[in-house]
Amino acid sequence: LGTGRGHRGDVRDVRGGLGTLQGDPVLAPSPSQSLPVHPSPSQSLPVPPSPSQSLPVSRAVPPPAPPGPGPPPALPKRLKKSKPSPAPRDLGRWKPADDLLLINAVLQTNDLTSVHLGVKFSCRFTLREIQERWYSLLYDPVICKLSCQAMRQLHPEAVAAIQSKVLFSKAEEQLLTRVPSSPVPSLDTFQELLQRHPAVFYPARTPKALQLHWQLLRQYHLLQDQT
């Protein structure tokens, strides 16, 4: 009995200690956690296996076998070559004379459609190709530099021939339409016209060039006294 009383006293001490823990907000167990319960004498405890019983032995995992003489790993596929920029192709098709014609014609007309219809280049460029070339000359420093270097190497006679083919601006044609259709004017008439309006006409204009363009205007009845 004395031993039983002592055992009950130990249980009271343990319960008192748990009550102290439950009062601590940090150390107190949560309501979902159950306190450990000592097994009663009626409960059976696990019996250790006897020496005659065999314990399960974990099988050792064999090391991986060395790779055999199989086929070598496939090499990575070659990267697709990027498409070359259109600069080399344009530089091959567009001659320095074409660039000079394009620049002067655009400065005269400010209209790429008129340039496409009125300028005769070394190749039959489409309107889109003319637009792309013009924007490349404006915004691509590499193409612009190469084009300028090539145009500087043109012979002066070739430059003069190119400048003689530059399209007429609207202001130039307005002055030419004022020349009457009859009597037929002479070269002196167009020479005087050049001298009176040097700021309007392109610097490379000659009296003969003005006369030829005036005849073209008269052929299509575009002179002021014909309308």
TrEMBL record:
GO biological process, alphabetically ordered: positive regulation of transcription by RNA polymerase II
InterPro entries linked to this entry: MCRS1, MCRS_N
GO cellular component, one term: Ino80 complex
One matching Pfam family: MCRS_N
Feature: compositional bias, Pro residues: 61-75
Residue segments, region Disordered: 1-94
Biased composition (Low complexity): 29-45
Protein name: MCRS1 protein
Source species of the chain: Molothrus ater
